[in-house]
Amino acid sequence: NPMAEGENYTLDLEKADKWLGVGAKPSGTVASIIKKVRTAS
After folding, report:
1. How far apart are CA 40 and CA 25, in angstroms?
2. Residue 38 falls within a domain, yes or no?
3. How many structural domains comprise the chain?
């Protein structure tokens, strides 16, 4: 259920930063998730 409350995923920011650092381009959805995780940290 996409509308369910609570944590539905985990994100390893170190790995995300590694991939972004070598030129990976996140989709709009992934960029939004990364932004939410960074502001929650």
Report:
1. 22
2. yes
3. 1
Domain assignment present for residue 2? The answer is no
Query: Got the DSSP string for 1-41?
Result: -TT--S------HHHHHHHHHTT----HHHHHHHHHHHHH-
Residue 1 domain-assigned (yes or no): no
Rounded Cα gap, residues 1 and 41, in angstroms: 25
pLDDT at residue number 10:
84
User: Domain limits at 38?
Assistant: 12-41
Chain position carrying tokens 């930063």: 17
Q: In whole angstroms, give the CA distance from residue 38 to residue 13.
A: 8
pTM above 0.85, yes or no: no
